[in-house]
Amino acid sequence: MRGYALVRNPGPRLAEGLVTHIERQPVDYELGLKQHAGYVRALRESGWDPVSVPSAHDLPDAVFVEDAVVVCGRLAVLTRPGAPERRPEVGAVAETVRELGLRIAEIEAPGTLDGGDVLQNGETVYVGRSARTNDEGIAQLAAHLPDRRVAPVELRGVLHLKSAVTALPDGTLIGDPACVDLPDMLEPLEEAGSHVVVLAEDTVLMAASAPETRRMLENRGLNVISVDISEFEKLEGCVTCLSVLIR
Fold this sequence. Notes:
3-stranded mixed sheet, alpha/beta, about 25% strand
């Protein structure tokens, strides 16, 4: 196994999850359960050992486990989500990463930080300055990561930094220039093509809703694993939101 993949099953109130930049659509909970199982299966088949955080039936957004913790090496930085109703999600995530033996640090008030705003790429940690992540949260994260370069990034019209840009295995950024200004970005052919999870040096996971970008990445020599996450995309979720990889 390459490491652990922290995941959290969707709860029955999934359809009540927060929506900020898109119009609310009906969410099929049963289909969401099947899609999440397929996502977890793809991680397992790619060499990652899924570790489930206990479900939270009263927390609609808890399935987006990435927002509750940032893992850098053996350090787990517990976040303080910018949406107050999401802060109770962190407790069970904290217990789970402690059980995995990670060191713990925390973002404290008045700082706010969502894990979806944090993109680690080599020695640089890009952090989106968003409605969910403030300057104090960014400063605290930088203090917890003294050996990394933490670079704040301005966003336009998206919920989180990784709603706009992620990184390929070779460090190339792939993202939407309408939403974020970063140098030398590869532009995807669909909005969902901005979102990849690096599973190995030659393999990425991405959403089935970006078939043209998938072909573009395959032409660059990458193995692309595609998963259908339509019910989570209706809640501004993407492939990065649904797991935290612990190498």
